[in-house]
Amino acid sequence: MSVIERQTVAGRAPGGQTARSAGAARLPRRLLRRIPRAAWICALVATINAVAWSIVTPPFQAPDEPSHFAYVQHLAETGHLPSSSKEVFAPAEAVALEDLHQAEVRFSQENPTISTLAQQRLLERGLALPLSRSTPGDAGLAASQPPLYYALETVPYELGTGGSVLDRLELMRLLSALMGGACALLTFLFLREALPAAPWAWTVGGLSVALMPSLGTMSGAVSPDALLAPIATALFYLLARGFRRGLSAAVAVALGATIAAGCLAKLTFLALLPGAIFGCAVLVWRAARAGRLPSARSLTLAGGVAVLPAAAYGLRDASAAQPSANVVSGAFALHGQHTIGGALSYMWQLYLPRLPGMDATFHGINGSLLWFEALVGQYGWIETTFPWWVVRIAFVPAALLGLLCVCALVANRGSLWARRLELASYGAISLGLLVAIGLDEYLHGAQGEYLQLRYLLPLVALAGAGLALAARGAGRRWGPVAGALIVTLMLGHDLFSQLLVISRYYG
Amino acid sequence: MRVAIALAAGLLTIAVGVALTLARRPLVLVAENLPQTHHTLIMARHSAGACQAGEVLPAGTSAVRLGLTTDIGSRVGVKVLADSRVIAEGTQRPGWRGASVTVALPPRPRTLAPVTVCFALTDLNSAIRMLGLATGAHVAARAEGKALPGRMHVEYLRPGPRSWWSMLSSVSWRLGLGRAASGTWYALLLLTLVVALVVLSSWAVLRESR
Fold first, then answer.
1. d(CA A203, CA A93)
2. Minimal CA–CA distance to B54: which of B81, B30, B88?
3. 3-state SS of chain B: helix, strand, coil percent to 5?
4. Looking at CB atoms within 10 Å, which of A21, A167, A331, A408 has the fewest?
5. Across the interface, which of B3, B21, B181 has its CB nearest the CB of A499?
């Protein structure tokens, strides 16, 4: 009897069900074993980096961290989502914020964190008080966000039972750090699919992302941005895999699950949806044309997995006091003074230098330069930045990297045309995010309030691809050398950013 | 071999950069004209400026920090005048963020008093709040000949006596405050993590380039 026949018989035997379950149980292990060791190293580096950032960043000094913590606390303590977007937090958290002088330190570079033993003792006494952790149920800005990230964070929150608010916060930050690790791992896998010709460049891109201070700082804090980044990176990876190997049933279902997870992680993901849907549609069209379309059952399953969880949350959300749907529609509501031309001009200037004839959005500076400054360093509540001379020096490596990237694209121009639909999908996802940020800014007259690098973290996989391409742009002989220099550049950027934050809070 | 040399050169550059950075003396507060406040004196939406008399410019002051807060800062020009003569001036480019702005000034060898500190806001990107303390009109800052509701908060900064190297132990100690389990072990843990980052990243680059 052949192996296949023996397996068939086993499948039909009374014990077949057990064999199938055992096989299913082994499947994740088999999949994990297929991931190269270098990808795990990238994940480990990103996790360690995020843990380092969680130490460097004082408690509640990451953007909106008090609100995100309040959301998790309320969900864990009551089993219900927060009921109000006011910023009256539960007494246990409010006392910690007060004793940490959180409001005075936030935004004010001249104010470091607490610095005396007396302040520490006062904090410890405040943390030990038996104060309410469940009322009044406010979660500030976080209240309108979907619950996936916060639900996951209830696990470390519960693990900290018996501990103080700060114990729980540290455990929650560690879970975010693991999400940072997942992001770097998925970036590596994305590069393996998107740039298959040079395996060493996967490590360059993966490590560069792992060492990015912007990823480290958000993965070292309690923020749904920590979850959104790996989910968006998974989306890029699955699309790249589908474009390279064809749309399998497994990839279709995984894409559906990723889209569902994204919708339930942060409202920002909705901006990525048009591009994601475009990419999925192209994959289905190409598979149908090649006669290799997954079964209708698989596609229905994938569609169901993508839509049903978000729809269920949407239905529940419609009856909430602070519906996310209202936040989204309110964010894009047009008022009298807004025009389509005005919106286009604003969005253009948010990312690119102003063209003649446009009314100035920014004065004395342009949006692209502000983004570059944010890329060089923007920490704490975005008030902590490098001095201007550092930004000027940073132009040199940035220009070199851009040049190398262009060289790589020119050298591979033939394959670019062949992959135009894949690139258009990535472009549509990126454009969706950039337009959403720009439109939100324009409609709210925010004047740069959303000009924060963390909002671009969903595109971190493309940044990794850009850096891997730059290394390849140095050519076959010097590529690995350029790769080593790029990794040390990212390492240096990360370490000096940590020193900057240390000097700001503890100097 | 080439990769190992590039990696070593990169790491050496970082090490030298860190050593030089830690050898610098951070700016410290020499004097401030008022207790720090978050009280809004005025809100500027267009180009604005004000002058404040009766200030003291301590010797060696190399920067002033003004109580101005905004989303994306404007250009800020500062002039220090003694007897109507400009004795120091500096400019901060637009794009700063937060609840204060620091403007570098050329240091003066001697303390000068009384001086008038003037500032001008141009290229405004969003409304700017001026923070300070409400006072009587006779001591208040003045704009276009009129008294403002009070005096603006101004801090005078100069490089401190100690380098970051000599402050390592105090910074390590402070890093451990405000935590779940306070102690300098946070600094040791951070150092261990950073060493692990360097070792792992270097090893991965060398391994994959083979």
1. 41
2. B81
3. 30, 40, 35
4. A21
5. B21
Distance from CA of B115 to the nearest CA of A (A): 23
Chain A residues in contact with B181 (beta carbon < 8 A): 167
Chain centroid, CA B69 distance in Å: 14
Residue A9: pLDDT above 80? no
User: What are the boundaries of each domain within chain A?
Assistant: 61-144
Average the pLDDT over A96-104 and give the result.
95
Calculate the alpha carbon distances from A501 to A61, A378, A384, B189 in Å. Answer: 11, 10, 7, 17
pTM of the full structure: 0.91
Nearest to B93 among A120, A382, A388 (CB): A388
Q: Assign B145 a pLDDT band (cuts: 50, 70, 90).
A: confident
Q: How many CB atoms lie within 10 A of CB A276?
A: 24
Q: B93-111: per-residue pLDDT in tens?
A: 999 988 899 999 999 999 9
Bigger pLDDT: A43 or A80? A43
Q: Spell A198-210 as b/e; 16+ CB within 10 A means b.
A: bebbbbbbbbbbb
User: What Å distances lie between residue A479 and A394, A472, A476, A489, B204, CA to CA?
Assistant: 21, 5, 5, 15, 16
pLDDT bin (cut points 50, 70, 90) of residue A427 is: very high
CA distance B83 to chain A (A): 30
CA–CA distance, B204 with B187 (Å, rounded to integer): 26
| Predicted ipTM of the assembly | 0.93
Write down the pLDDT at residue A5: 39
Q: Which domains does chain B have, with CATH numbers?
A: 2-25+163-209 (no CATH), 27-159 (2.60.120)
Return mean pLDDT, chain B: 92
Q: How close B134 gets to chain A, by Cα (Å)?
A: 20
- Phi, psi dihedrals of residue A203, rounded to the nearest 5°: -65, -40
Closest partner CB to B3 (pick from A166, A484, A498)? A484
